[in-house]
Amino acid sequence: MPFPDLLVLRHGQTEWNAAGRHQGQLDSPLTPLGLAQARQQGEILARMNLKGWQAACSPLGRAVETAKIALADTGLTPRLDDRLREVHFGAWQGLTANEIAAKWPALCADRHDPFAWNFRSPGGERFEDMARRAQSFLDGLSQPNVVIAHGVFLRVLRGLWLGIGPDAMRDLDGGQGVVHQLHSGQQTRHGGDV
To answer: Dihedral, CA atoms, 22, 41, 138, 123, nearest 10 degrees?
Structure first.
C-alpha cells in the first residue's frame, strides 16, 4: 500500500554534531549554522502548497527547535511523536568516535558499513526495533505530512517509504538544511547543504 506524500527534514546542526558526538536520544542545542539550516528549510517549505498537510516532529529539543523555525510561515503546528526519536545509541550516547573506539575496539574494528554500525552499540537500539517504530508511524498516516526528525531515523523512514532494504538505505543521502520530498514512489532533494 502506498503511503501519503512526505516532506522530510533533518534537524539543523547541533553543538554535538559539530563536536562529533553521538547524540542518539540525548540532546544539544542548535549552532548558528543549525539555525541557518532550519531557516533554509523554512524558505523551501514556504514555496510549497501545504494545504491539507499535517506536521509531525520528534520530541527531542533539536528537532522541536528546527520545526519552530522551518514551519513558522506554513501555518502548520507539529504534533510530537515519540516514534520519530533518533536511534538510541546505548552506551555510546554522548561519546565521540575516538572515545567509542578506545572503549570498544572489537565493535569498531569493522566499520565498512557505517549505517549498520549505528545499530551495534551496547544496550542500544537495533535496526529491527527502529524499523518497527518507523513502520508504525507510516502505517498511521492518512494524509501528507512534513516530518522533522533525525539522520539515522530518517534514512530508515525514507527507505521504508521507498520500499528499499537496509543495504540501500545506507546509500540515501542525508543533509541538514535540505528537504527530501517523497512523492509518487520517488524522492527529490530540495536545497543544498548550508
So the answer is: 10
- Report d(CA 78, CA 72) in Å as an integer: 11
Could you give the 3-state DSSP secondary structure of residue 33?
A: helix
Dist CA 139 CA 149 (whole Å): 17
pLDDT given at position 194: 64
Grid cell at residue 16: 554535538
CA 144 remoteness from chain centre: 17
pTM of the predicted protein model: 0.95
**How many angstroms separate the first and last alpha carbons of the chain?**
35
Neighbours of 193 (CB within 10 A): 13
The catalytic site residues sit at 11, 86
Q: What is residue 51's DSSP assignment?
A: T
Q: Do residues 148 and 55 touch, judged by C-beta distance below 8 A?
A: yes
**Do the beta carbons of residue 71 and residue 47 sit within 8 Å?**
no
Closest CA to 90 of 62, 147, 136, 129: 129
Q: Are 95 and 22 in contact (CB under 8 A)?
A: yes
Which residues of the chain have a pLDDT value below 70? 1, 110-112, 194
